Amino acid sequence: MSGAEQAVRAKALALLTDDVELAGLVHGVFDGVPPRASAPYVSVGGAEGRDWGTKDRAGREVQVALVLNSVGESADGGAVARIEAAAGGLRGAADCWTIVGARVVRTRFTFTRDGGWRRETIVRCRCLAG
Description:
Elements: H1 3-18, H2 20-23, E1 29-31, E2 41-51, E3 59-70, H3 77-88, E4 92-94, E5 97-111, E6 117-129
Parallel strand pairs: 1-2
Antiparallel strand pairs: 2-3, 3-6, 4-5, 5-6
């Protein structure tokens, strides 16, 4: 994982962890899949990056998965809304990178074997070095 992917994941984790409203809706926000956690919870999943540089500046396009795991028959719109709001907050400085654009590009909703569900929000971040 390059520095841009790490920077985007770290910033996403910090934004979601610091969201007081989200904290009231879930049991926790985790870096990756937690070994033991009861739903509902949020995890910052994998990050995929590709070159997005210019002639004179290094750049990366990073896609990161923000995942809400829950139980029951209905989706928790409040937590989903907070996660999507965090996507816009990713813009700005992130370690040695600047996130110049961030937007939700894809969502996926699936049911799990234990009667719960999982909603992935994929956020695309375009980053420039420096």
